[in-house]
Amino acid sequence: MNINNLPDNPYLLLTPGPLSTSKTVKATMLQDWCTWDDDYKNLVEEVRSRLIRLATQRPEQYTTVLMQGSGTFSVEAMIGTAVPRNGKLLVLTNGAYGNRIIQIARYYKIDTVALDSGELDPPDLEKLEKTLAGDPEITHVAVVHCETTTGMLNPIEAVGRTVKKFGKTYLVDTMSSFGGVPMDVADLEIDFCVSSANKCIQGVPGFCFVIAKRAELLKCEGNARSLSLDLFDQWKAMEVDKGKWRYTSPTHVVRAFYQAMQELEEEGGISKRHARYIENHRILVDGMRALGFKTLLPDAYQSPIITSFYSPEGKKYDFRSFYNRLKQKGFVIYPGKVSKMSAFRIGNIGHVFPDDMRRLIEAVEKSMFWND
Ligand SMILES: *Cc1c(COP(=O)(O)O)cnc(C)c1O
Questions:
Q1: Is the CB of residue 195 below 6 angstroms from any atom belonging to ligand 1?
Q2: Mean confidence (pLDDT) of the chain
Q3: Which residue of 64, 108, 316, 348 lies most exposed, with the fewest beta carbons within 10 A?
């Protein structure tokens, strides 16, 4: 098909998912698929094996489970399947997504310890060490990699070293970083991590996935307290029936994701994509600072995924008007999510390039109505 006939999107999504996708990714969704036919199952198996190869150089130690739903479904499936009824979970949190893990654990009545370092600070590694040393009942530790609330990149390597020193199971929400930030889950000693179709792989929303250390997942049979979110059962069905999902799968979304993985490879893999995101981010932050905006986080903590900026001080400023002006100029940004400060966020992942970020800075300059 001729993708040039597809309409252009009226605006770029500068948000952490759903994000802007290529026309070629969108175009793949024009075919219908049969979920138990080999054509589709082979596609699923190819997606699964490619995901593991993106996750690690030691693919034989890991496996993957695809799960229907938005990213949170995989976080819930991971917590509710990996942590047994008599387990105890320690959660390091510094934002809404860390807090969501705690919320999930509460629904599951999991005995949980929260170490909250506040939205502007990274996890306290000394406190982690002390807590693990003082509470041998803790079995699992969970942390968010890129805390999308602020854009902070948490030190999952250092956290993992401490977690493994005490022999605990390590769970990481790599939702907004997987595929966009180089990492090897085996080197990081991650037992389970999650992401979704509509983040750095640049697919459309509709499913999520868990990368699991095979030996750890095999211990989880019978743990789940939810049928549809039983990660072990979902995995077993996919393994036994080679690419078959337990319940109706988002076929079009999976096909689009396969194309998105192809395009990631054509771009040069995760390291090249990471380099583009870093370049996008540099142009964004340099440009915004030149216009007088201040970033919420110091550069040392900042991810190349999404950036929080303090709201400008002009008395006439309001986010809605700023948002609408930028939208008219072709860019959709994100409201702030930190609880104490007024801020907004701009993402730079997705089918978005350095020239788009330069055009964005021009659009921001023309939208600063509060200075008029
Ligand atoms: C996007 C995201 C999620 C999942 O959010 P959904 O709205 O359920 O897709 C979870 N954790 C982080 C860090 C995220 O960025």
A1: no
A2: 97
A3: 316
* pLDDT value for 174: 98
- Please list the residues that pair with 153 across neighbouring strands: 146
Domains of the chain, earliest start first: 24-265 (3.40.640.10), 270-371 (3.90.1150.10)
Q: Compute the distance between CA of residue 226 and CA of residue 246 in angstroms, rounded to an integer.
A: 14
**Model-level pTM?**
0.97
User: Ligand 1, atom 3: nearest CA belongs to which residue?
Assistant: 71
Q: Is 172 in the pocket of ligand 1 (CB under 6 A)?
A: no
Q: Is 40 helix (H, G, I), strand (E, B) or coil?
A: helix
pLDDT at 319 over 90: yes
CA trace torsion 260, 263, 269, 271 (10° rounding): -80
97 lines ligand 1 (CB under 6 A): yes
Count of all residues that appear for the chain in the document = 372
DSSP line for 280-309: HHHHHHHHHHHTT--BSS-GGGB-SSEEEE
